[in-house]
Design a protein that fits this description.
This protein has 178 residues and is of the alpha+beta class. Helices cover 61% and strands 12% of the residues. It has a 5-stranded mixed β-sheet with strand order 1-2-4-3-5, sandwiched between helices. The longest helix has 33 residues.
């Protein structure tokens, strides 16, 4: 398991570096063709700035786009208790918990690491799942957090947003309970 976590972290760094290399190369190519190499420098600096911005804000963007609302133990006690029990039993930090008002059964996890993780479930999922099924879905999402599977989809979805694409470049970014 630790090897897989290390590999997930390495792969994320490699993907980010590949993105920056590609954008920088395109910027320098555009600058070369325009006769102004400083365009490439500006494009590379903006790409690095955007990567840093994504590192800190992509999870908030994902929850905002999904229309997720943060809940606590008083507003959504069943979901909160389920996630809290799983976090305690696995020795993980308690992630922030969100609910999305959507009739389709779905859940996802996002964040840059377990200390800054978010798990979300739709109202449709909460309506059709019994406690044991909900525990299984949330355990699956916390598994993504624990294994750092959430990093690549978070980065990729942030990069696809400015281009107008609604798809992520990595598989496994959303889990369907259906």
């Amino acid at each position: 398991m630790y090897r897989a976590i290390a590999q997930n972290k390495r792969n994320t760094v490699l993907i980010v570096l590949a993105f920056l290399l590609l954008v920088g190369a395109l910027g320098f190519l555009g600058g070369y063709l325009a006769g102004n190499v400083s365009i490439g420098v500006v494009v590379l600096v903006v790409a690095i700035g955007y990567a840093v911005l994504q590192y800190f804000t992509a999870a908030r963007q994902a929850t905002a786009i999904a229309g997720a609302v943060e809940v606590d133990r008083t507003t959504e006690p069943r979901l909160w208790r389920t996630v809290e029990n799983l976090a305690i039993s696995t020795g993980m930090p308690m992630p922030r918990v969100y609910v999305i008002d959507d009739p389709s059964p779905n859940a996802f996890a996002t964040g840059r690491d377990p200390e800054h993780a978010i798990v979300a479930a739709t109202t449709g999922l909460l309506a059709i799942m019994d406690d044991q099924e909900l525990q299984g879905v949330m355990a699956h999402e916390l598994g993504h957090v624990r294994n750092y599977d959430i990093a690549c989809p978070r980065w990729c979805s942030g990069w696809s947003s400015p281009s107008g694409s609604s798809q992520t470049c990595c598989s496994g970014s959303r889990s369907s309970a259906a």
